[in-house]
Design a protein that fits this description.
binds adenosine-5'-diphosphate; six-stranded parallel sheet; 792 residues; binds zinc ion; globular; GIY-YIG endonuclease
Length: 792
């Protein structure tokens, strides 16, 4: 018998209230997660509707007490059903409970009071109203008379105004309502976050490259073809105009659009650009809005009051009824990956939502993620290029400065001779300068300033991180060595951890260029609501000469006055302790370089680095993405890093150190047993029996015995030659996480590498079952992270 978990009220408070029903055999084929059903409910068995949120063949109570589903309402998923199906996908792909997944995709905030506007008007003819007024005067019902007089003078008055301005009590108003003289209508007033912004008309004619993309996508759209497109367009090539051209047609066809942009790029300028074109059919979501404001926007989308929702990651779950298109701008941004469980990636979930809602997906970036570009190369996505800057601005001149040479010249300042002289030149000419420093990854990375050697893990090819205890550690495998005093390659004593922050840079700028007007922008200066935009607009208005910033590269801002961009130490991100370091460096350099020369004047870019020959630096200097992609993919293939393979990180946390250590070992052991069993089943040609195998409890973990077995399992796997269809999972760790203890909670991490994502999903399912049945895991928290964005 098949059973379904059914939810009867989709509101955040009730997501965990599910009821189990049996599925009549005739309905089994159509009973999938998300479909609306009718069920007999309560003692009277009245028939009500609900949605299937889970399926199983295990009854939760005595089978004879389980009622049966009456029917499936219609085929085709309504929006609620689509969101439930999307939640099931999130749970399956990223781990965690269905309840957590539902809470992620159903972004309704509970207990938010709606602002209700109540309008009072006359319910009777003018004459009758007048009669009522005269009668009230006679009876000396002063308040009543006041209200009736007011209504004789104006057709409708707001309830609140009657109470507050006319000083009339609610009882009086209600008694007039009861006698049928007045009526009160309520009108829900949604807060519109952009209502007050300007509307000018909008007209830009697309250039040839832009028009080609718009035409192709719309041709597909009209023919009913839905797929994922990747637009690789250099900075300033006019991607946003392309999006708007396509959006225009999609909303004219009566369907809706979600556009994701990184929170950091959700600036006033960007929003106004959309607002000018689409008026108040658009809305935005962002984290600075109150819960009430966010709730209102979601309601407006549900009610069909808007057609376009713009926002960061979570805007993906806007409950539009007839979604036609999802755009993900700057698709390479790490903020599209959730850092909280379920650790989903918006790009992947968007593609699933597109499938469920029959919508197309457009990804855009000047520096696409390797994941997206590989899929485009593999033919899964359709690839477009925008190769020219839209405004015919000149591509900037880029110089690479070798900082090792500067040290030889005894220049120990953070400015190379070239950069210093160019800064002086721009200050003289009253042109603007941007100085970038990548903060990510600088902390703790150790390198030699004489020869450029960086201290790396011999096993993982990842930079080691300095710990205050005087050791360097690999955050992937736990390898550690004492922090060296001299460079192991050249013997120089200039080997040290990097630690230049933006504040220090600011101090040095002020010291070397005392007349310069300097603005600094980083997480510290932009904590409050407006300062980020204030800094940018004040710089755009020419109120400063130099802007110092971290990787907060801004979209929606063209700084026409900037003719020099300096990147102070490109390597800082190159040696970050994860495998995406080169990709991030390339992105930072290419995007930063793209900031120069947006106006009439030609721009210049200076990249300072200890590794001038590194491909991430040289390819970024020429904005040659394809060359970068090819080199980097070779590295990922060699090392089996995503997207050549997949990684599943398992983070184990507990208050007790022994618990995390043993739990991590148990999980590593369990993975090995799974692997052994899986390979055996594949050898016997029945790979699908896996699940049955687990459910029947054949995987029993006697926690002490197991380690004796382990040696055997490893030999077994080595002797059992691999072919492409078998899982070939490498287990890295367990090791203490980079932050091994956080708020008194110990953290250990285990990485699994495997070429086929599906096998990792199977391992995750298996481990989740293991964790629920084993008492041991009650004392710790286990989180899964597929293709993690940051190392733990
Ligand atoms: P991207 O999103 O690729 O960085 P934008 O769409 O922001 O590029 O375009 C960069 C600048 O070029 C903007 O100021 C935009 O108004 C302008 N622009 C884009 N397309 C055109 C066009 N076809 N004609 C004139 N200006 C354009
Ligand atoms: Zn050295
Ligand atoms: Zn290592």
């Amino acid at each position: 018998m098949q059973y379904a978990d059914i939810i009867v009220d989709i509101s955040v408070e009730n997501l965990d209230k599910t009821y189990q029903y049996s599925i009549p055999p005739a309905l089994c084929a159509d009973a999938v997660i998300g479909v609306p059903v009718t069920i007999p409910f309560g003692n009277g068995n009245r028939s009500i509707s609900g949605f299937i949120v889970g399926l199983s063949d295990v009854p939760k109570i005595a089978p004879e007490r389980i009622k049966s589903i009456l029917g499936i309402k219609d085929k085709g998923l309504p929006i609620e059903g689509q969101m439930i199906a999307l939640a099931a996908f999130v749970k399956e792909q990223y781990g965690g409970t269905m309840n957590d997944a539902l809470k992620t995709v159903i972004p309704v905030k509970k207990s938010v009071k709606q602002i209700e506007k109540r309008i009072v008007s006359s319910a009777v003819s003018k004459e009758k109203l007048q009669d009522a007024y005269i009668e009230a005067e006679k009876k000396k019902h002063k308040a009543k008379a006041r209200l009736l007089l007011a209504l004789m003078n104006s057709e409708e008055i707001e309830f609140e105004d009657i109470v507050n301005k006319l000083n009339i009590s609610r009882t009086t108003i209600n008694s007039l309502k009861e006698s049928g003289i007045i009526q009160i209508e309520s009108e829900t007033k949604y807060r519109n976050p952009i209502a007050s912004k300007t509307t000018d008309s909008y007209s830009i004619s697309l250039n040839y490259e832009q028009q080609e993309i718009v035409s192709k996508v719309l041709k597909d759209y009209e023919e009913g073809i839905r797929k994922t497109y990747l637009i690789h367009g250099i900075t300033g090539s006019g991607k946003t105009e392309v999006y708007m051209g396509i959006i225009d047609q999609v909303i004219q066809s009566g369907r809706q659009v979600i556009m994701l942009i990184p929170e950091i790029a959700l600036t006033y300028q960007t929003v106004v650009r959309f607002y000018k074109r689409f008026g108040n059919r658009i809305s935005i979501l962002n984290s600075k809005m109150s819960a009430g404001e966010r709730y209102d926007q979601i309601e407006r989308a549900k009610n069909g009051d808007i057609d376009i929702m713009i926002g960061p990651r979570s805007a993906l779950f806007t409950p539009f009824k007839d979604l036609g298109l999802i755009i993900i701008d700057e698709e390479h941004e790490t903020s599209y990956k959730s850092e909280m469980p379920p650790k989903y990636h918006a790009r992947e979930v968007a593609i699933k939502r597109g499938e469920l809602s029959n919508a197309s997906i457009i990804l855009g970036s000047a520096t696409p993620s390797l994941e997206a570009y590989k899929k485009a190369m593999d033919g899964e996505f359709e690839l477009f290029h925008l190769t020219k800057r839209a405004k015919e601005a000149k591509v900037p001149m880029v110089s690479i400065v070798d900082l090792k040479e500067e040290l030889k010249k005894k220049n120990k300042s953070i400015f190379s001779d070239l950069l210093r002289s160019l800064i002086e030149d721009r200050l003289r000419k009253k042109e603007q300068i941007m100085l970038f420093l990548n903060r990510r990854g600088y902390a703790g990375f150790v390198s030699c300033r004489s020869c450029g050697t960086a201290m790396k893990c011999p096993h993982c090819d990842i930079s080691l991180t300095a710990h205050s205890t005087g050791v360097l550690k690999c955050h992937y495998c736990g390898y550690e060595i004492p922090t060296p005093n001299i460079c192991p390659v050249c013997g120089s004593k200039y080997i040290a951890a990097f630690g230049t922050g933006t504040q220090k840079v600011e101090a040095m700028v002020l010291k070397e260029f005392p007349t310069a007007r300097v603005l600094r922008m980083d997480a510290d200066t932009t904590k409050n609501k407006l300062s980020y935009e204030e800094i940018l607009s004040s710089f755009a208005n020419g109120e400063a000469d130099i802007l110092i910033g971290t990787q907060m590269i801004v979209k929606g801002h063209d700084f026409a006055g900037v003719t020099l961009v300096g990147i102070l130490a490109a390597d800082l991100s190159l040696y970050a302790n994860d495998y995406r370091a080169a990709e991030r460096t390339f992105q930072l350099l290419a995007q930063a370089a793209g900031r120069a020369g947006r106006g009439e004047l030609i721009g210049e870019v200076v990249i300072q680095t200890y590794q001038p020959e590194h491909y991430a630096v040289t390819t970024a200097a020429t904005e040659d993405y394809v060359a970068f992609y090819e080199q980097e993919m070779n590295y990922r293939r060699l090392m089996k890093y995503p997207p050549a393979a997949h990684i599943m990180a398992i983070l184990i946390q507990s208050k007790e150190e022994e618990v995390v250590i043993l739990a991590a070992d148990l999980l590593a052991g369990a993975v090995k047993e799974w692997l052994k069993a899986k390979v055996e089943l594949i050898n016997q040609d029945k790979p699908d029996e896996q699940n049955k195998f687990i459910e029947q409890g054949k995987f029993e973990f006697k926690e002490q015995d197991k380690f004796k077995e382990q040696g055997k399992i490893e030999n077994y796997l080595e002797n059992n030659e691999q072919d492409d269809n078998k899982p070939n999972i490498s287990i890295i760790g367990p090791a203490p996480a980079g932050i091994a203890k956080m708020n008194d909670i110990y953290r250990r991490v285990l990485y699994l590498k495997e070429e086929q994502y599906e096998y990792l999903v199977e391992v995750k399912d298996f481990l989740e079952q293991y964790i629920t049945v084993s008492e041991y895991f009650k004392k710790c928290n286990v989180q899964f992270d597929f293709d993690p964005m940051n190392s733990y």
